[in-house]
Amino acid sequence: MSLFAILKSTENKSGHSFDRSFDQCLKCTACASQCPVAAVRPDYPGPKQCGPDGERLRLKSSEFLDEALKYCTSCKRCEVACPSDVRISDIIATARSKYGNNSFKIREFMLSHTDLMGTLTRGSAPLVNKMTAIKPVRLVMDKALGIDRRRTFPAYAKTSFRRQYQNVAEQQAQFARQISYFHGCYVNYNDPELGMDLIRVLNAMNIGVRLLNKEKCCGVPLVANGFPDKARANARLNLANFEQAMADGSEGIISSSSSCALMLKDEYPHALGIDNSKVKSGINFITRFLANEFAAGNKPEMTPVNLKVAYHSPCHLIKAGGVLHTLNLLWEIPGLELQQLNSNCCGIAGTYGFKKENYETSQAIGSPLFRQIEESDADYVVTDCETCKMQVEMSTSKQVLHPLTLLRMALV
Amino acid sequence: MRRQCLVIGGGLAGLVAGIRCAEAGLKVAVVTSGESGLAFASGAIDVLGYMPSAAGVHLNEPVSRPFEKIDELAEYFPEHPYARIGRDGVYKAMDWFHGQLAETGLSMFTASDEQQNQWRVTAAGALRPTWLSQSVAEVLPWDLQNVKRVVFVNISGFLDFLPELAASGLKRHPAFRNSQVEALNIELPLVNGMGATADTMRAPQLCRALGEKDFNIIASTLMEKVQDASLVVMPACLDSALDSLHLKELRRRTGLNIIDVATLPPSLPGIHMQQALQHRFAALGGFLIPATGIRHGIIENGRVFNVSNGEDLLTADHYILASGGFFSKGLNVRPDLNAEQVFSEPLPVKEPIFGLDLNTPEQFSERKFLSRTGHGFIRAGVRLNRDHQPMIAGQPLTNLHVAGTVLGGCDPVQECSGGGLSISTAWQAAAKVIADIEAAGEKA
Amino acid sequence: MKRLETDVVIIGGGATGAGVFRDCCLRGMRTILVERNDIATGTTGRNHGLLHSGARYAVTDGHSATECIRENRTLKHIASHCIENTDGLFISLPEDGLEYQAKFINGCARAGIPTEILTPEQALRLEPVVNPSLIGAVRIPDGTIDPFRITSSNILDGREHGGTLLTDTRAVGLIIQQGQVAGIHCLDVRTGERYEIRAAQVINATGAWCHEIMEYADLSVDMYHSRGALLIMGHRMNGMVINRCRKPGDSDILVPGDTVSVIGTTSTHVGRNELENMEVTDEEVRVLLEEGCKLAPSMASTRILRAYCGVRPLVSTSSNGSDRTISRGLVAIDHADSDNLPGLITITGGKLMTYRLMAEVATDMAAKHLGISKACTTASVPLPGAQGDDRANSQSWSLPNTVSGSAVYRHGDRARNFIKEEDKNKQTDLDKQESSPRWRNAVVCECEVVTRGEILYAVDKLNARSLSDLRRRTRIGMGPCQGEMCACRTASLLAATRSDVVSPLKALHEFVDERWKGVRPVLWGDGLREAEFSYWVQEGLLGLGSLKSDQQNDQQNDQQNDSEALIANAVDACAADETLSGQQAEQRAEQGEVV
Predict the structure, then answer these.
(1) Is B149's pLDDT higher than 60?
(2) pTM for the full predicted model
(3) What is the pLDDT of residue C585?
(4) Pairwise pLDDT comparison (C41 vs B339), residue with the higher score
(5) Cα nearest neighbour of B166 on chain C
(6) Of the options 1.10.1060.10, 1.20.58.480, 1.20.1440.60, 2.30.110.10, the CATH number for the domain spanning A18-99
(7) Closest CB to C528 among B58, B264, B377
(8) Complex ipTM value
(9) Which residues contact residue C281 at a Cβ distance below 8 angstroms, ignoring those fewer than 6 apart?
(10) Which of A412, B109, B281, C405 could form a disulfide with B136 if both were Cys (CB 3.0 to 4.6 A apart)?
């Protein structure tokens, strides 16, 4: 039997499918020099030692698991820096959930169950917003839950996006082309207006927007906070709904959150081991979808937006290779003066920066970016990620817009 | 929106090409995938430190005036990338580069005579000829006379600077046989180190851990112990910003000639160089597109029509290929798992994006790893025709230009020429793009 | 001329020599071991590191199989820190059929080797890397053994019991007086000094090179030198040893060892003049990979770190037949009986698995001549490192698990001699006493997590004198980067702390070239990328090459030629010496004349 024949015959029945990308690590330290956590936390051995180096040891025995893995924020800058395509951040996250001790913690539960928290606050949003803005309440959250009191909590919207959508649902069905929108927790509970912007932009391109029958949190905060099983359950539910949507004639699934999109498209198979191959090619971050439409000639009529904006690329969008599409899109907006900010992490890394013990680290990581933003003469900062937006608005004097909002502003 | 020029690769060559295009007002984007070699480079820029060995003749004399040697080099080695650019071209490119850096706040120095090489001291105590350096020591002249006492000063516990090895290394150099060369380790509290110790840190972390108290201790220890040193060599971990303020302040306070040299990777001077170039590119209106590995190109009628990262097509009028060597995957050698003979011998070198024609030396590697002859695999690279165009099966591509390590044709590590090669080939590729676009504009 | 006196002198510092050394020392003999390079540099350091259950020989060589399973159990007891009880699989592929499996199980039963028949599904669950087209599997108690560590532990125990180790010391002749071997002539390869060691018993434990020592006494042995090539994969692909359930052949064992896996071996007959500086051929690499992929198909896409080869010291019983039919049994010759030459014992043949047994047999012979009746205890007394359970302890140290775990993994209970407890409340007297306690836990080699303390311990207590010696004691530079940065760090550490070691720069160059030798035969893919990166760092960034200018290169070559000439001269001189009459020689020796 030739080697060729063996490889062919075993291709599809391999007994295991764990990530072996650590094997390609050249020990070049590129990841270590880009890791925002290692830069400010010398007690964190860095992505190289925690990821590919550690993985070789853990293959000997799980006793080699290093506790310091918990400091990783999953920002994925290491993966972007890696010249060898090692999935460093995935390796760390997997090791944490595979070998680590996952005792239940109320704070991690609160921060990570974004959909549940959103549902609980429904109808009482103004009250919750006021509460989370009150000092004594923050102090209690700080002391009892370890959520840093200096942190601005995202405000909850009065009416959820799903409910607001009911008003336009009928009108959406009129369009010949239909696409499904995974709005995610943030748009639904905190920023429904962004969802409405997306609808306006797509409608201007003669595409109708549908919602999925049901959707749950994509899983990013669940994985980061040690709830991989819950994340897998959510993933299965979401994928089932995606498949249903495609079967019902939807062109694909779009997301306006760069982190959700990365999770749905790439991390379901990589980090959670869940097969999404049936729908993968149909899942897109909104800017990729729009840029492709523009390139194919489906461009809405636009008037000049005479603004100067500074673009911050979110870590997870960089990792997904999505900067290309957002830039492609922004280049198309007439009158827009666009400056690209240096590629620095803002420090929030999802729920990471909300935790009390990470607050200082989080702000230190973001400080070079904040400085650059303050020094720039831009009218607005533009970014694709909701938590980057929170962090930048909390830490600088500038307001942050989503690329979709800019596009909506350009619509005639 | 279509770019006029798309640069594939964000290392030294790619960024230089991008900067030159952006400076000329072109709409240009640089796509990168993974860090380049800059993050582990010395941060100095070499032009030519040694003539390559020809026909078994090893030329060990370091080159003193690099630009003047380029004509001679071209005569012996017509395939050498410098031969295509010529002495004037190389000088113009390097002078332009020096000027670009000056705009970024990163100070780079030539020797007092700008045609002249200077010495770079390494963390292992070797001397390497270089042209531009981030840290000059007036006391280390090219002819190396009267250097009485050299001290390699480390932060105690830090593993990525090798003072003891460097001391014995430098003693091997004939000019230092009679000098006093020694190592000194300074114990520091590392006030911003959050309790962590120097042995757990790489250079960037150590840099952040140093506080005012630490600099005070360094200064007073140097004053006390090595006041008569002709040269003090420290690891490059003093400054996180491009301006080298701490190093300058330390020199001022001690009155000593202090240089800081690149540590084992990650190297701060290399990272600073990268940051400076990225800032410059952004300031000129260029766009850097990270995490976008170009997998293949689509060719039509002798032109690159567009390139793909496996999912999306990227389109431009001109393309500059600056994808690097094996490390950066600009070239590769691998068993073909889909072939009948998986481990065929010998495995061929390939340029994976376009499948360009290559030059591959017969002798792929030498028996000794660190030998003056260098290695064949380093010399492998893209073959160009007389018009400097790359080819596929002998057919030239007219809108693809090649720059940097992927060109091969020499062993820049042995020659001490890596920086100059990347810069001048990229400068030339960008010049070609600019000229072509101007010509097309006139025609239109 | 300098002269040392002792009861026993052992030639050869492989596992067998080290085992004899320990055994002699434990039985109270005054013992010296001479080794021309460093310990475990010959066949010992160039094999699979497989702790045989004996199953491999169950069908073809029942005697070896029985020996193996007995020693397997003994070693698990005395050398727990060198061994992993991984168990092994003998898999049957479609092309093998299941016929051999039945024979195999019978053979194992005869030798007392426990077996468990598994379905393909069970085997895949236990060891997911295994070729999924297997049709059957048998589980047997194979394991892994670290050859460097076991040799070093034997040496350490011998030294702690009064023995003397002389590395870089070559036996260049036998002292023969009145028809009896009375010691050896030695050459210190580093200094060029010549001296003699007088001993009542000389034990020739030079394995594949044993004929060279025997020739000093005009004796001969019919050695069959079989060369075997192996490849080291970039990580530990498999948890269990994987064998093919068929007649033993090329490249049919994949052994997990520490952080890597090793695939081997080939088998080629080599002449006695080809034993030095062997290089792995392209054809060997191809065979190893093509056959190896049948055991574990993912090998095709796994990085290969290096290739190396060793030579099996087989003693020929017939002139035809391939080496696999020749017995792997040990050969012990008491030349007093066989050649009427008292004072010389040769121990050869055998294999790593039976090193202890070989040592026992040879030591018994020497003890009989010396009138020593103390019985062998090496099968029951654990080696240093296996004398306490520190694995549990290491978890309580206030150190990252990677650091404490790796130290204990390699040095067992002796790890406590170099790991420093950082938590003041938990510090022992040792932590407080240490004269230079700083940076003991600094990680110098990140791939294998080797600390500064471990390196200094190896230099102080384990007789490491160069970077390559340190590699054999600590695994420094054995990871994927092959010592790219840690070699430089270690060289600087040696320069800072020791004056009695090899010149750090020379050691560094030796180390780099030795690593490169193993990389060159597999220079493609990520290994090639790593090589380019190392070249940038070591030559471009650090300029190491220029620290050995061509002039010095030549000098070094000259020196090397010198030392070869030195050895040749020394051997000739000794040979000439033996032609003198015994009486003359004795006279000259008594006068202390330089010969």
Answers:
(1) yes
(2) 0.93
(3) 46
(4) C41
(5) C492
(6) 1.10.1060.10
(7) B377
(8) 0.97
(9) C229, C521
(10) B109
